[in-house]
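Re: the 332-residue chain
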Amino acid sequence: MTKAFHSSGDVIADRRAGYAKMLAEGGDHAAAADLMAQALELTPQWAAGWELLGNYSEKAGDISGAISAWRHLEALDDDGLFGAGLKLAAHGAASASEGTAVSYVEALFDQYAPRFESALLQNLGYQVPALLDAMLVAEMGRLGIERFALAIDLGCGTGLMGERVRAKVSYLEGVDLSAAMIAETGKKGIYDRLDKAELVAALAGRAAEADLVTAADVFIYCGALPPVLSAVVPAMLPGGLLAFSLEAHDGEEAVFLRPSLRYAHGVAATRQALLDAGLDVLRFEKATLRQDRGAPIEGILILARKPVNVNSLLTLDDEMVAEFVVSGVAAA
């Protein structure tokens, strides 16, 4: 699934959009927005043009203009490919959805797939798979786990997490919304099975059979955590492990949508959601996940376990949550 940025269907509008792009690349976003507005006078039904106008206006500091453009976009984009609702919610002009914006996330990563790894690893200093794997290895040793029988890598992308856990797993499944991502990771031969699906739908009705579930930078696109855990936990064997990352904030809100259109989860609310889902919290650690526009993105790495029996439930005390248990995490 892709977005049709290539043409408005009008030569003059396309030419103005091309000039607008050059102006934006040169840093003159106000002039770029003005040219896009002129282009859209000629082609008012061009959804991609309204997205460009909104983005240029936002970067120019004209938030009201951006919101107006995104409202036009929302009216034209029935499938939600462009994420207009998310953009409006991130600026307080609409209510954020509690679930995944499936069409938007799918389209985003379909376009991102060819340059996904180079952008993350070379430009953004992405560390999550390495950090989660280091945490998993440490707990495997402590728990006496030598190998996993079945692992499910949610939001597997191009297989960065799968590459880390492959040697520890007898049968490895990958699930991702994006067909382009699935195609990229399929070339590597990492997974025994790959499924294109939204993760909650993929797990619905599955038997409790996974002894490891991983989700590296996946739940940041899913909104509220409890519905996700309600799908994940039933698919896990008693004693199975769940390793995942979140962007985090210290406020009271369970979750809020950032301007990046990724969700940040509250520390205390996350801990409570894990306990409510019936999971033992084994590790709950602060980490820098990657860089974004030259600034570090802080988050939490979590390793939880489905109890072997209901009487085995462990909890984190308030002091541990406050400190994030920062020791013991290093990139492998």
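Residues 312-332 have pLDDT under 50 and may be disordered.
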